Amino acid sequence: MRHVWIRGIMGLIWLGAAVVSGFSGGFETTLLYLVLGGVFFYSAYATWKKEKDDKGDK
Fold it and tell me: At 57, is the secondary structure helix, strand, or coil?
């Protein structure tokens, strides 16, 4: 479960960086940071879902 939390926090950090980059006018890096944040959130969700299914919770 620790990996899910770490990946979720990293996703928030990347999305925060995207917001700051968007305000400063770096639209190319904003897109990159949004993609990175999305990847981290997807990874956290996939890991959470797998752990949940492995425990038998439905």
Answer: coil
